[in-house]
Amino acid sequence: MAKTPEGLHRELAVAFRARGWIDDGTAILTMVEAAETERPAPSDVGHAVPRQSLLNIGATREDLIRMLETVDLNVTSLPKEGGRTIVVGDIVGGNKVTNSTIHGSVVAAQNITESFNKLKTADVSPELGEQLSALHEAVRELVATLSEDEALEVSRDLNAFTEEVTAPKPRWAWFGVTGRSLIEAAASAASVGPAVVKLVESIIKLVS
Q1: Is 201 within a domain?
Q2: The total number of structural domains that make up the chain
């Protein structure tokens, strides 16, 4: 029986973690969307991932395709609304979907990727870099539970927060506000929310 895009996303996320890869907010989303085509081949799904995403996650395209060969890519396409995949029978408030729906705002995913790319070139301590990387992964999961507008706002806050805390002289007036905004957005997310809150608070302590 075909799985949902959400189920495939979770399976790919597990496969990424097993290999020590970190999704940049675009790679897994792109693969899930590619898998929604009729009878996708692992090579087709692997080649859909942008080259920059491969550099971000630290994998070759061949590595990615080998991983995909171990995954059942047969998924059932779900109806989309406003660029978001909607899980039938599990819609809250018309546009917020429970259980970490996979296809959130594409623009938000791009914002997270841009923020992650800034982090990769930033001159920060290993501890701060590790915590910021984990925050990007947690926020990527968070935005999948939010409405389109909320996801965009959170992704912009993450971008601004990352830019400021990685600056030579971080300014509280800037990263404090965006940090609080991220914490507030995470408050209603029972699954990934606590992780976002803990990471933001830890990062603020590091740079304060």
Answers
A1: yes
A2: 2
